[in-house]
Amino acid sequence: MISAAITSRRTFSAGLAAALALPHSALAAERWQILPPTPPPPKGRAGYAQVDGIKLYYLEAGSRAAAGTPVVMLHGGLANSDYFGNQVPALAPHHRIILLDSRGHGRSSRNAQPFSYDLMTDDVVALLEQLGIARARIVGWSDGAIIGLDMAMRHPDRVDRVFAFGANTRTSGLKPDVEHNPTFARFIARAREEYIELSPTPHDYAAFLTQIGQMWRTQPNWTDDQLRKIGVRVLIADGQHDEAIRRDHTEYMAATIPRAGLLILPNVSHFAFLQDPALFNAAMLDFLDGQD
Predict the structure, then answer these.
(1) Which are the contacts of 132, defined by CB distance < 8 A and separation ≥ 6?
(2) Tell me: the pLDDT tens digits for 149-192?
């Protein structure tokens, strides 16, 4: 079994190293093939922000007076902020946490504007502006990780560091026919049910899929030169058995972004934060709160 692959100029903590070194027998068998339930909505202060023609749902958790840099958590495509319910308690003691439902996802509305990562990134920046947050650390999963990297390229003054889990920076980084993977297919089916339950336009799922699908067919497609301009600290992380992202692409991102680290979490997939929250949280906190 691949226990971990780490490349970084900083040293990971002994606790995380020990967690990564657990023998196969200490981990649940085939954990990466299981899609655990979506956690309940995290407890916090919920609200809506008027952003570029839409209502953007957000939730604040943790303490506004916390000493640590604020953390913004960005979910994956088709999902919603509830998916990070297992991470909020780990971050809350030392950080002000902002979770949001990306435009068209979860409780947020959308309009006729074509979906793009630049547009969703600008939504995040506008929300930070309204909340009076000058600079934040980003935890992103899948589309959320792509938004975090986009933010690091286009709004570097607003980003302190990016924990990018399950990202791709080119469409060629995706595995073909990922929707036919059993675990990923279960996620897609669940996402439809959650959209109907949460969305302000519950009967428009097909139209939503059409809009976001147009983005996925062509974005992102960043060049090496664009990635090399990223100056903030980045950790490129993924699961050993990611259903959607090619391993060689994950390694390419870490090798191309200056000073980026690479972390492969064992026995988990694109849904590691649900499958092994303790391991995911250890890696997340080690990066967010560690010294350069």
Answers:
(1) none
(2) 999 999 999 999 999 999 999 999 999 999 999 999 999 999 99
Q: How far apart are CA 38 and CA 26, in angstroms?
A: 24
* Residue 180, SS3 per DSSP: helix
**Which pLDDT value is given to residue 5?**
44
Q: Residues 6 or more apart from 196 whose CB is under 8 A from it?
A: 202, 203, 205
CA 120 to CA 211: how far, in whole Å?
13
Specify the number of domains making up the chain. 1
Q: Kindly list the strands in the beta sheet with 96-100, ordered across the sheet, starting from the edge strand earlier in the chain.
A: 6-7, 261-265, 233-239, 159-165, 136-141, 71-74, 96-100, 54-62, 45-51
The answer to whether position 1 is within a domain reads no
State what percent of residues in the chain have pLDDT above 70: 90
Residue 118 lies in a domain: yes
Q: Give Cβ neighbours of residue 161 (< 8 Å, ≥ 6 apart).
A: 137, 138, 232, 233, 234, 235, 287, 288
Is 70 part of any domain? yes
| Amino acid (one-letter) located at 153 | M
Alpha carbon distance 292, 288 (integer Å): 10
User: How do residues 72-106 score in pLDDT, each as one tens digit?
Assistant: 999 999 999 999 999 999 999 999 999 999 999 99
pLDDT of residue 25: 44
Residue 285: which of 9, 2, 4, 12 has the closest Cα?
A: 12
